[in-house]
Every structure is written in structure tokens, then in C-alpha cells.
Write a structure and sequence with these properties.
Layout lengths: L1 E2 L6 E2 L15 H6 L3 H43 L9 H4 L9 H8 L22 H22 L5 H24 L7 H23 L6 H6 L4 H26 L4 H25 L5 H11 L4 H16 L12 H18 L7 H35 L1
Length: 391
């Protein structure tokens, strides 16, 4: 007979809990009275359970560790430390909620002399954008209506509208997301739209000029399949073209924050994407609708975010100082800019071994992780500025 070490009540040797006080008994006390064979069986069962549990948890832990290590290394180049955690459910928590017209108008009037908040009024918490989703929904409804006119009613006059809506829907909606996420609210919608149109068009022109300096492989000329070298050439040329225009607007507006750089870059990239996609849809012939849909949904992770990464990276180096060309040679900038080029190159490269849609989704996820690292640095910047202001 054994006794409970907690209350002294008599217990049977194999008991795991005291029948009087419910106290959990030491494992050794319960196992001591077990036959050796039973104890061995228990050990085997425990080992099996631990192995099964480890196998089930190893993969998620490895993924989490890979994510933490990657974001921590990128975060280091922004001047911050540690992995970047993003709660997507919280980030988009305002999307399904009802919002009034006045709430939307208050977002659109941000960035003027009377609506730009002071430093102590700015929150360093993650924004919860929602207006972009309403704009995207409006574009989708318009696209469906125009598609019905074209296919269901055989009205060819719907084609120009279909091209316009299909090309602008995702890039412009994504741009509004960056506009909402800019906690400083120091760039007006007027400036953003101006950069979208003028910056996007001039980025295309700059790219066409730069294309005169490169040549493509015979393989691509004969088969239309881009080699890795061709894809890298496209990535360098187009990202450099957008970078030049993004840097111009950053210098002209004399912005001073990472979130501003992300917004200006997104505006240039969104305009570039919209006008480029319109041209591709126009030249698609009978594949017009298919091209519009493919390039439409995938635009969420293309030129819009690649240029945003470059814009944010410029501000990581520039901060409050005047822009200098030497900023573009800083390692902190080059790390992010090279990543944007590689993402672009991988996007265009005809790998063949990977399903093209899975490849696009994977690249979109990677691009947004980089954007979130820069956004996190932008929010940390608010905290640093407020601390220095108090001191």
C-alpha cells in the first residue's frame, strides 16, 4: 500500500491520482508498481506518440523558422531587429464591416494642409485598410457588366471599357491600399493620382529607352520562350526604369518616411502595370478576356509591389536628408532592389518544371512579405520619431 504525498490517504500502487484530494501522483510512484513489461509498453507508446507529434509539428515549425530567419535578416537592412509578424486577420479586419460614406471621404481628403496629422497624433500600430476593397468590388462589377455586354449582347463597343477596367482594377485598388496604410497621411490623393498617371507613363518611356541597350537570346527570338538571361535583362531594365521615376518623385516631394516611399513607388508601379496591361489586353485578339483576367488578378504581386519595394528601400537610406544618387549605391537599398529584380525575373522566366500559376502565387507571397518588412520598419520609424520628439 502506498500513501498520497499530499494528504496521506492510502492509494493503490498503480494509481495516478489520489482518490481523496485529486492530487497528481509522481510518475515514478505509479510506475514503480507496474510490471517491467507494462512499463516498457508504456514507454513504447509514449515514444510513438512523441514521434507522431514531432512529425506533425516539424514541418510547420520549419516553415515558421524559415520565415522568421528571412524576415529578421531583411529587417536588419531596414535598421530594425527581429522577425516581422503580420496578423493578416487583424490587418483586413475592417474589410467585412460596414463603413459610411463620410468615412470613405475622410480617407480621400488625407494629405492636405488641414488634414495631415501632427507627429503625436500618428499611430504606430498597423493600419486596417478597407476602402481599397470597395474600389476593387466596384471595378469587378463594372468588368462583369462589360463582359456581359460583349459576350451576352454581342456589343463590341464594350471592348474599350473592358480593356480599361481590366487593366486598372487591381493596380489602382492596390494603390489605394498603400494610400490607406500610410500612417503619416502627408501625401494627398491628388499627388498620388498624378504620380499614377504621369509616373506610370514616363516609367514606360524610360523602360523603352533602356531596352535599346540590351539584346535578347536567339532562343527567345525563335521560340518566344525567355531564358534566365532574358528574364534577368527584363527585370533589370523595367525595375530600373520605374526606379528612376520613383526617385524623381521622392526627390521632388521631399518625403522623409519609409511609408511615403512605399506609396510613391506603388503609385509609379501601379500606373506602369495598368498601362502595360492595357496594351497586352488590346493585342490579345480573341484571348482578350483571358488575358485581362490573368494579368488582372496577378497584378497584385507584380509591378505595383516591386516598385513599392524600391521606393521604400530608397527611404530606408534617405530618411530626412536630401536625396542623392549615392543613396542608390547603399547596400541597404541594393538588397531590396536586387530582390525586386529577382522577383521580376522569376516572374517572366519560363521555368517549365513548376506550374505557372503556383509560381505566380509563390512570388506574390514573397513580394508581399518583403513589403510587410518595409511597412514594419515604417511603423517602427513612427515610434522612434515620437520618442525623439518627447526627449
Amino acid at each position: 500500500m502506498k500513501f498520497c504525498p499530499h494528504c496521506g490517504h492510502p492509494i493503490v500502487p498503480t494509481a495516478k491520482f489520489c482518490p481523496a484530494c485529486g492530487h497528481a501522483l509522481p510518475a515514478s510512484q505509479a510506475q514503480a508498481a507496474q510490471p517491467a513489461g507494462d512499463r516498457a509498453q508504456d514507454h513504447r507508446q509514449t515514444a510513438n506518440n512523441q514521434t507522431t507529434s514531432a512529425q506533425g509539428q516539424a514541418s510547420p515549425r520549419r516553415r515558421e523558422s524559415l520565415y522568421d530567419n528571412a524576415t529578421a535578416k531583411l529587417n536588419h537592412y531596414t535598421g530594425e531587429n527581429g522577425a516581422v509578424k503580420v496578423n493578416l486577420s487583424a490587418l483586413f479586419s475592417e474589410v467585412p464591416k460596414h463603413h459610411s460614406k463620410s468615412e470613405a471621404e475622410s480617407i480621400f481628403i488625407a494629405g492636405t494642409d488641414t488634414t495631415t496629422p501632427s507627429l503625436d497624433q500618428i499611430s504606430g500600430d498597423w493600419a486596417k485598410p478597407w476602402l481599397f476593397s470597395r474600389i476593387l468590388l466596384g471595378f469587378l462589377l463594372a468588368f462583369i457588366a462589360l463582359l456581359f455586354m460583349l459576350v451576352g449582347m454581342q456589343n463590341g463597343n464594350a471592348i474599350p471599357g473592358l480593356i480599361l477596367v481590366g487593366a486598372f482594377a487591381v493596380p489602382f485598388s492596390g494603390l489605394v491600399f498603400f494610400f490607406e496604410a500610410n500612417a503619416f497621411k502627408d501625401i494627398s490623393l491628388f499627388e498620388v493620382v498624378k504620380i499614377f498617371f504621369i509616373g506610370g507613363i514616363f516609367a514606360l518611356i524610360a523602360t523603352l529607352v533602356l531596352y535599346q541597350l540590351v539584346s535578347f537570346s536567339q532562343t527567345s527570338q525563335m521560340t518566344g520562350m525567355l531564358t534566365l538571361g532574358d528574364s534577368l535583362s527584363i527585370g533589370v531594365v523595367e525595375e530600373l526604369g520605374k526606379l528612376l521615376i520613383t526617385a524623381y518623385f521622392i526627390d521632388r516631394l521631399n518625403v522623409q518616411h519609409i511609408l511615403d516611399g512605399l506609396l510613391i513607388g506603388a503609385a509609379v508601379g501601379a500606373g506602369f502595370a495598368a498601362f502595360e496591361t492595357a496594351g497586352y489586353i488590346y493585342g490579345a485578339g480573341n484571348q482578350l478576356v483571358e488575358v485581362a483576367i490573368l494579368r488582372g488578378w496577378s497584378a497584385i504581386g507584380g509591378h505595383l509591389v516591386w516598385a513599392a519595394i524600391a521606393g521604400g528601400a530608397i527611404m530606408v537610406v534617405k530618411r530626412t536628408k536630401p536625396f542623392k544618387a549615392s543613396n542608390l549605391l547603399d547596400t541597404r537599398f541594393l538588397v531590396f532592389f536586387v530582390l525586386a529584380i529577382l522577383l521580376h525575373a522569376a516572374w517572366d522566366w519560363d521555368i517549365g518544371l513548376i506550374d505557372p500559376y503556383l509560381k505566380l502565387i509563390f512570388l506574390i507571397v514573397i513580394a508581399w512579405i518583403i513589403v510587410f518588412v518595409l511597412m514594419n520598419a515604417g511603423l517602427k520609424e513612427i515610434e522612434h520619431l515620437q520618442q525623439r520628439h518627447v526627449e
